[in-house]
Every structure is written in structure tokens, then in C-alpha cells.
Amino acid sequence: MAQRRELTAREREMALVLSRKAKAFMDLHGQSQRKMATGMGWTPGTLNQYLLGNQAINYDALFTICAYLQISPLDVDPTLAQRLGHPELQRL
To answer: In Å, how far from its chain's centre is CA 15?
Structure first.
């Protein structure tokens, strides 16, 4: 079995922010993590791995989670627009 690489500090911070925002969303809407994962088209284990910071989150996953939580990806990673070369996204 291939060993996972260690997450960067930025990736760990993103997981922490996403975890907090997901928890707030679940509390506000009375949803379980299982229901959230299903709503995103994922297994609960997949979502859990991202939220725990056990798996580095890719852009597709980040955008999927943010869309579900109705937040901007910039709330999770303020450097995203600059790193993607789209400074106009910073206005979102």
C-alpha cells in the first residue's frame, strides 16, 4: 500500500477551516456528515478524510465542499485566487 505524503501547513489549515465550517453548517441545518457526503456525491469516509486532514484536498473537492456549504473557497484559502492566477476572484 502506498504511503500518503505529509500535508503542508497550508493544507492542514484548510482542513481545519473546512472542518469548522462543516460543523457549523451541520449544527445550523441539523445535518449529519453522512447526509452532507451523500449530497456531495461522496461516501462519508471520503468527506471525513478531507475534514480530518488525512487527505490533501484538491481543487475539485474544495469547490464541491464550498458549494455545498455555500461559502467561498477564498474563505478556506485566501491565497487561492493568486495561486491560480486569477486575482479578480479576490473580489468574491
So the answer is: 6
pTM of the predicted model over 0.70: yes
Phi, psi of 79 (to 5 degrees): -90, 0
pLDDT digits (tens, 9 = 90+) for 17-63: 999 999 999 999 999 999 999 999 999 999 999 999 999 999 899 99
Residue with cell 492542514: 12
* Strand, helix or coil for residue 52: helix
Instruction: Specify whether the CB–CB gap between 36 and 47 falls below 8 A.
Output: yes
Helices (H), the chain: 9-29, 33-40, 44-52, 59-69, 73-76, 80-84
